[in-house]
Amino acid sequence: MTHRDVDQYASKTTIVLLPFVRRFYVCERCYRQYPNASKLDHHWVANEWLDSVGLPQYSGVFETKLIDARLLNVLSKKDLDKHLNIHNKFHQSSILHGVQLLRMMRFDTQVTSAVCYKLNF
Predict the structure, then answer these.
(1) Domain ranges within the chain, ordered by starting residue
(2) Does the pLDDT value for residue 65 go beyond 70?
(3) Is 1 helix (H, G, I), strand (E, B) or coil?
(4) Reported CATH class of domain 35-118
(5) Which residue would you say has higher pLDDT here, 31 or 42?
(6) Does the predicted TM-score (pTM) go above 0.85?
């Protein structure tokens, strides 16, 4: 799906696509690189992942905006600040470092849990 396809779809519907959502639709390489990311829905991100990162106060925002693991992969500091209203720079860094850890583990929650257990986290 290209930017033009997304724009045409958005103009026919009442939804508003955020800029990072548009980047997600264009990034097919991300799906091939991280196929497990598609298995982690916005409920998992909001309720489990944010809690494990230590920032459960943002779970409502992530759930409302439907941020799943595929969108986590393309989030930037600018997106966190502008679209998700996360202005604290330390919280932004914690989220982005958590995303980096998910990438290192290829979005496989079993591997991530095993590593955290082994390291006593």
Answers:
(1) 35-118
(2) yes
(3) coil
(4) mainly alpha
(5) 42
(6) no
